[in-house]
Amino acid sequence: MGRLVITDLCKQYKDNKVVKQLSLTIEQGELVSLLGPSGCGKTTTLRMVAGLLEPTSGSIKLDEKEIVNTPTHKRDIGLVFQNYALFPHLTIYENVAYGLKRKKVNKDEVRKRVEDALKSVQLTGFEDRFPTQLSGGQQQRVALARSLVLNPAIILFDEPLSNLDAKLRQFLRVEIRQLQKKHGFTALFVTHDQEEAMVLSDRIAVMYNGDISQLGTPTEIYNEPSNSFVANFIGETNMIAVEDAQEESNHFTAKLKTGETIKAIKRKDSAYKEHLIMFRPEHAQVIKQSVFENKDEQNVLKGQVEYMHFKGSTFTLGVKSDAHDKTIICSLQPDDCSSSTFNEGDDVFVIWNKENTYIY
Amino acid sequence: MKPISVFRIINLFIFAFLMAPLVIVIATSFSNTSYLTFPPKGFSFKWYEYVISDGRYLEPLLNSLLVAVIATIISLIIGTMVSIAVVRYRFKLKGMVNSLFLAPLIVPSLLLGIGLLMFFSKLGITDAYIRLIAAHCVLTIPYVVRSVVASLGKINPSIEEASRILGASPLKTVFLVTLPLIKPALIAGGFFAFIISFDELVVGLFLTSSSVTTLPLLIYSDIQFNLNPSISAISSLLIIGTIIIGVVGMKFIDKKNLY
Amino acid sequence: MKLKLSPHWILLIPGMAMMLFFFIVPLGQIFIISFFKSQPDGAFTLENYSKFLTDSHYLKILWRTIWIGFVTSIVCLVLGYFLSYGIARAKAKYQNFLLLLVILPLLTSAVVRNFGWMVIMGKKGLINETLLALHIISSPIEILYTPLGVIIAMTHVLLPFMVLVLYPILSSMDLNIEHASENLGASPFKTFWLVTIPLSLPGIFAGTLLVFSIAISFYITPALIGGPKVPVMATEIYNQTMNLLNWSYASSIAVILLIAVLLIISIYNKMLSKVSNQGGGL
Predict the structure, then answer these.
(1) Closest residue on chain B to A73 (Cα)
(2) Residue A296's pLDDT band (boundaries 50, 70, 90)?
(3) Which residues of C touch B37 (CB under 8 A)?
(4) What's the rounded Cα separation, in Å, for the pair A190 and B100?
(5) For residues A255-260, average pLDDT
(6) Which of A107, A114, A117, C23 lies at 20 to 30 Å from C231 by C-alpha?
(7) Alpha helices in B54-108 (DSSP H)
(8) Between A5 and C279, where is the model more confident?
(9) Chains A and B touching, counted as 3 or more CB pairs less than 8 Å apart
C-alpha cells in the first residue's frame, strides 16, 4: 500500500505558475526526494499532496484512488514538518496518541501503539514531558513517531532536518532511512540539500522552476545529469562555453572560443542546446606542460595554476585558462601530488576523458 | 537632596493622586451619618447593611451581571471567529475588516448611544436587555479581537496543519488545538469585555427604560439626586470586586500592548 | 462551477452582520439626520452645522471643550511621563506591581471614580475641610462645578491611558544610550532632557493626542463634576437629544465631534507606528 501517482499537477497564483504540469510516480515502499533550490515549487507540490493547498489542476492518486478532492484529514498521509509542529499544550504521549484518538482506536491499543512508536524512535520514558522540554532532534523524532504510529500509506517530509545542526542532521537521516525500510512506508522527501537527497533516496527528482528537471537514482543523477542545471545543482562542475559543435556517430566535437576542440561521447538523450560542455573536478588530471604528451586523444586545456588548497582527502587546484571565463576547478588525490608538486603560476595542462565530458 | 529622591517623591504624589478617589470612597462608606461628609464621622457598617438588605441595588446588579456575561460570551465567540478569519485567511479588504472591528474603541460611545436609540426606536425594539446586549457587544468586541489576533499571530499555522494531517477536521482542530493555545488571550479579552460592559454608563443612558436599569446607571442617578453614604458603600464593593478580578486577570494580560 | 462560500466569509458573517446593524447603520443615521431639518417633513439643510459654528453660545461650548481637553492632555502628559519613566526605570520585579496600580483605577467604574472626586471637591469635601482646618481659607472655595474640577477629575480618568502609551516606549528604550550620554559627561538631568525626551517624542505626541481625543468626547466627568455650569460638546449633545429632543442638531454636533476624533486618531496611529512596528495602534 502506498503507491502515489501525480499527473499533470499545476499550481498557479494569478499569473505566477509555481508548479507546471508535474507528473511523478512513487512506487510502494520507495523513498523519493524532491530536490531543488528555494522557490522551485517542491514544497508547494508536497503541500498539494498533503491537501494543505488546492491544486489549480491535475490529479493525485494514492493506491489508484483519486484524492485531489479529499480533505486533508481524510487522506491516509503523514507529514513531518520543518519546524516539528508539535502541539505545545500536549505531552509527548498525547502528541503521539493524537491521530489514534481521532480514529477512535480503543485505549489499550492506543497505549500499546504509542509505546511502540516512541520505542522505535528511542524516546521511551519521555511520555509525560512537554515538547518545549525536548531538544530539536528529540522533537523531530516525536514528530516522526506521531506520523509512524498511524501507519499511513505515505509519509511526506518537508525539509525535516534543516533546523538541526550538521552532526545531528547526518545522524537523523540515517535513522529516517532505517525506519522507512523497516516499516516499509512510501516516502516523499523535500529538501534543498543535495547530499541529504543522495544519501536517503531511492530516486531523486531534481526540480527547477516548477517542473521536474530530471528523475533518477542518485547515481544516475550524479553521473548522467541531463542538463546543466542538474549538473550544477548536484556536485561540482566546470561548465565551459562552446562556440560551435558537430554531432558525429558516437560523439560530439565542440569548439571553444579559443580554438581548442573538446570531444564528448554521446549518451542517451544527449543534445547540443545550451552551448556548454561540462566535466567534474574529480575527473580532471593536471600535468605540468613540460612533461605532457597527448597519447589517448584526451581533452586538454592549457592554463596556469592560480591557487592550491589542501582539503584533507583531496587537493583542489584552481587553474586559469583563456578558454574559460572562470577558474577551472580540479580535484586531485593526495597520491597524485603533494603540496610541493605545483606552485602558483605554473604552466599546466588540464586533462580529462571524453567519457567524462558532457555536452548541453 | 539627590535628584533621584525628588523624582521618587513626585511619583509618590502621583500614585497618591491615582488612588485618592478610591480611598476616599471606601473611607466615607463607613460613615455613621446620613449625609456625605469628610472626614467621615463615626464608624459603622450600617450603609453596607442597608445596601445589602435593601433590594434597590439587587436588581440593577443582576441586570448588569446578566448583560455583561451575555455580551462577553457573544463577543468572545464572534470576536474569535473574526480573528481566525483575519489572521489565517487572505482576502481583499482584510485591513478594512480588521479596522472595522477595532473602530468602536475610537468612536465616542455617546454617538453609539444616540445612533442605537434612533435605530432601535425605528425598528420598534423596546426591550432594554436586547438593546444593551447589542450595544455592549459592539463596545467589547474590539478588546477580544485585539487580544486574540495578537495571540493567533504568534502560533505557527503548521501546528494546526499537523492536527488536520493527523485526522482532525478543521472544526475539530479549532477546539483541540487553536482554542487551547489562545486560552490566555481569550481570558484577557473576556476579562476586558466583562469589565467594559459591567461599568458601561453612557450608552445605557440612552438605551435603558425606567423599569430596567443597570448598577452604574443607578449609582449615577443616585449621585445626582440622592446623595448619601450608601453610594459609598456600593461603590466600595465595586472597587473591591474590581481589584480582586483585576489582580487575577492581570496575570494573563500583556501590559505592553494595552494601547 | 460549484458555488462555494470561502471559509473566511463564513467566519466573518456573524461579526459583519453585528457591526452593520449595531454600528455602521446607527452611525450612518446620525450622519444623514444631521443634514435635515428636525420636522418630520424636514428638507435637506446645512443649517444645523452653520448654527453650531456661528452661534456664540455654541462656539463658547466648542472652545471650552477644546481648552479643557488641551489642559487635561498636557497635565496628563507631565504626570504620565513622570510615572512611566519611574516605572520603566524601577527594578524589574516591581514594574508589574506599579503598572497594576496604574491600571486598577482604569478598571474601576468611571462613575465611582468621579463620585470619589465629588466627595473630595465638595463644599464639605476633603480639600475644603483641610484648607479650612489649616486656616488657609476662611470660607469654602468652589472646585466642584468648575472647569478646574473637571480638569482634575478627567486627568485622573485619562492618566492611565497616557502611561499605557508611554511606558512601553520608555521601557523598550536602550538604557545604554542613556549610560553613554552620562559617560560623555552629561548630568542625569541633561541626559533626560537631551536624550530620553527627544527619543520618546513620537510617544509624547501619540499619548497627548490619544488623551485629547478621549477628553473632548468624554461625557461622565463633565456631566457629574462640571454639571450644567460647565457644558461641553458631549454634555450638550446629550442635552439636545434627551432634554430638548433636537435630534438633527445634536447629530450635527456629534458628526463634528466624530470627525475631530477620527482626524486626531489617524495622526496618533501614524505617530505610534513610528515608535513601534508591533502595531499597538487603535
Answers:
(1) B167
(2) low
(3) 124
(4) 41
(5) 85
(6) C23
(7) 58-88, 94-102
(8) A5
(9) yes
Q: What ranges do the domains of chain A cover?
A: 4-229, 237-359
Cα–Cα nearest to B24, from C158, C115, C159: C115
Closest CA to B218 of B231, B236, B228, B207: B231
CATH code: domain A237-359 is 2.40.50.100
CB pair distance less than 8 Å for B166 and A52: no
Question: Options 1.10.3720.10, 1.20.1250.20, 3.40.630.40, 3.40.50.300; which CATH number does C47-275 get?
Answer: 1.10.3720.10
Yes or no, beta carbons of A85 and B172 under 8 Å apart: no
pLDDT at B256: 53
Interface predicted TM-score of the whole assembly (ipTM), two decimals = 0.89
Is A4-229's fold the same as A237-359's?
no
CA distance to partner chain A, nearest, from residue B166 (Å): 5
| One-letter identity of residue B47 | W
What architecture is domain B58-257?
Orthogonal Bundle (1.10)
pLDDT of residue A272: 82
Which of C164, C132, C134 shows the shortest CA–CA distance to C272?
C164
> What would the pLDDT profile of A182-240 be if each residue is shown by its tens digit?
999 999 999 999 999 999 999 999 999 999 999 999 999 998 898 889 998 888 899 98
Closest alpha carbon to B142 in B110, B99, B85: B99
End-to-end, the C-alpha distance of chain C in Å comes to 41
User: What CA–CA distance (Å, rounded) separates A80 from A72?
Assistant: 14
Domains in chain B: boundaries: 58-257
Distance from CA of C118 to the nearest CA of B (A): 9
- Calculate mean pLDDT across residues C251-268: 91
pTM of the model: 0.86
* Cα B114 to Cα C2, C28, C233, C248, distances in angstroms: 44, 11, 14, 11
Q: With respect to CATH, is domain A4-229 assigned 3.30.360.10?
A: no
Domain ranges of chain C: 47-275
Q: For cell 562555453, name the residue.
A: A241
Q: Indicate whether B84 pLDDT > 80.
A: yes
pLDDT at B198 over 90: yes
